[in-house]
Design goal:
By secondary structure, the protein is mostly helical. The protein has helices at 37-55, 59-76, 86-104, 127-142, 146-157, 162-169, 173-189, 191-196. The chain is globular.
Length: 197
């Protein structure tokens, strides 16, 4: 005799069971912005991938990170009633997953004294030099401790307020303020940014 060990999301559509309407299909006739998980992913994937790329240096790792976060969101899809909370839910899943990876990872990245390519000399409003400065800034952000990096990414790359950042990370606004202040101090003192200015 076989005993089922787990059920999938499609189990709700099994014969003999009625499928209940999705929580976002409100009876008041309001059209939901994301009638399905697939439509949400299609609409928001570029923004969410940008957040994932902000949390890891490797684009392939960022895609894996986003896939994991979206899988967690899919599992909770029926329970998320407020559509305004969807992005926050995925961001939280991204941060939690990345934090777990930081804790488990073995050290396989090594700092080196020489950069693989020389830094360009800044000039007057040259797009290539602006890009070089952005790249230098991003490398400096990646050198920040994980917690400070997450806060800087949410505050300045995702443009969240201090209160929203605190809510996503589950910390107080004061913690966000002090950590971001310390992070900005480190960025101001970063020697690579000094050279790129």
């Amino acid at each position: 005799m076989t005993t089922p060990v787990c059920t999938s999301a499609s189990a709700s559509a099994a014969p003999g069971r009625q499928t209940r309407p999705h929580p976002r299909h409100r009876p008041n006739g309001a059209t939901p912005a994301y009638p399905s998980f697939a439509s949400y992913v299609r609409a928001r994937q570029p923004v969410l991938l940008r957040t994932a790329r902000s949390l890891t240096a490797n684009p392939c790792d960022a895609e894996d990170l986003l896939q994991t976060a979206l899988a967690k969101t899919y599992m909770a899809w029926e329970r998320i009633e407020d559509q305004r909370a969807l992005d926050g839910y995925v961001r939280r899943a991204l941060l939690n997953t990345r934090t777990s990876q930081w804790r488990k990872r073995r050290v396989d990245e090594f700092a080196c004294d020489e950069l693989p390519e020389p830094e360009p000399v800044p000039g007057v409003d040259d797009p290539a030099e602006r890009q070089a400065l952005r790249d230098a800034m991003w490398r400096a952000v990646l050198r920040l401790p994980a917690r400070q990096r997450a806060m800087v990414v949410l505050r300045y790359y995702e443009d969240l307020s201090e209160a929203q950042t605190a809510e996503v990370l589950g910390v107080s606004v004061g913690t966000v303020k002090s950590a971001v202040s310390r992070a900005l101090g480190k960025l101001r003192e970063d020697p690579e940014l000094e050279l790129a200015r």
